[in-house]
Known about the structure:
This protein is α/β, with parallel strands linked by helices.
Amino acid sequence: MQSCESSGESADDPLSRGLRRRGQPRVVVIGAGLAGLAATKALLEQGFTDVTVLEASSRIGGRVQSVKLGHATFELGATWIHGSHGNPVYHLAEASGLLEETTDGERSVGRISLYSKNGVACYLTNRGRRVPKDVVEEFSDLYNEVYNLTQEFFRHGKPVNAESQNSVGVFTREEVRNRIRDDPDDPEATKRLKLAMMQQYLKVESCESSSHSIDEVSLSAFGEWTEIPGAHHIIPSGFMRVVELLAHGIPAHVIQLGKPVRCIHWDQASARPRGPEIQPRDEGDHNHDTGEGTQRGESSQGCRWDEDEQWPVVVECEDCEVIPADHVIVTVSLGVLKRQYTSFFRPGLPMEKVAAIHRLGIGTTDKIFLEFEEPFWGPECNSLQFVWEDEAESRTLTYPPEQWYRKICGFDVLYPPERYGHVLSGWICGEEALVMERCDDEVVAEICTEMLRQFTGNPNIPKPRRILRSAWGSNPYFRGSYSYTQVGSSGADVEKLAKPLPYTESSKAAHRSTTKQQPGHLLSSKCPEQSLDLNRGSIKPMQVLFSGEATHRKYYSTTHGALLSGQREAARLIEMYRDLFQQGP
Length: 585
């Protein structure tokens, strides 16, 4: 059994000793994605000096990952700034000149974002024929009318009928199908083609929601997600530039890379005896550590720390380093929480929060970039959309593992070619994306090439010269792309996920509205007598805070939601210490 030293007061850490003497609250941020960096930056700007960021992977950015190949930058993760009016990510990028190279064609106001609003989407069937333009336009109008109906259930309190099963997919499929069948002007062949197009649209919706199937997305909660007005933008030099802007000014020693966390031991200063805790098993984790038989001040891995210091929280890392703290901001993905929540928190989470973790959804949406020597698509084509004619009457869009490729909804054309070369970006989601992730590059490139030959009717399309793809689902530090409100969940579950621990009604700071803060440092070494009065054993609220895109009720699944959630949790702490300082010694 290993025995590990606490990093709370090491002899060779004079900075920590000085900070402790000043009474600075110690904050540990878990995760260096947009949420974690935004929280860290906000705290540092307000005078918090004892802040540490623990990042499990070897890089910052989280689900932002820009990869440079040759002269072009490709986004394996976040790609678009969705909306401009009031979007903090947009304003950060705009103020720094990151959007200056964005062409008019790359600014999209469409609901389904492409790399270019110029040109047209080419809908191709598995029989190698192109869907006529008038059929595409008629179906698109019909589908958008039904899509708008899905927003009304939340926004106008419209009751959901039993037939829809409270599912966006079930409701949309039946509504679209009935309208197509009731159209007296379309021949049967056109109706079947439109029904097949509907299935392709639903695959796109699944990719946009990052769900295995749009059938799993809650109809009653669907309209709560809020779209920021304005065009969508890409960042030509890479979305990582936004990450770098957030990280700018954060001292290098604050962020520790390659530092995965094993467990957060919270409520350590409580003298309250604790009864037995019964926690359900982690989703998909059959070998998690239950912690049975361990004592306070010791982890199940043998890591020990000094209980006499009365820190409220102790963070235990995978390398067995133990970091005591006053507050921990957890920014890990919902996918990681689903997989590890029983072993990640000691004591276990309240059942209300556990239930929210179970009810909310997260899935995998992956990209497949294919680079070709020359384009085989026409200059007017901004995407190739795959319509399987034999799926017109399908009730489900789930496939056996060997047919994972059927979940690829299509390929976007990267624009402009002067920047990217001749590159297509394919989309796939759900369980089929996980199967794709397990295949090697050669297999994926071969299958994608065969699909392109089949749907274009051109057997001479060569294999791509290069392939690049994401693997968010199998990455142990993410376990998915982004969250959605699953059938059975609602925005209330997002609020429960975001609620700090421990739950308390006695602290107004725990429930205060996080309004915009005034500039200026809140914490200063000029008032050590006040800081020293903040006895660590008596400060129990806000021990564990939660941020990340899945904790933002209106903007979940977005980069601006992640950034705002990090700022929100920092604001809780900033407000908490402002109140305590105002009370005086």
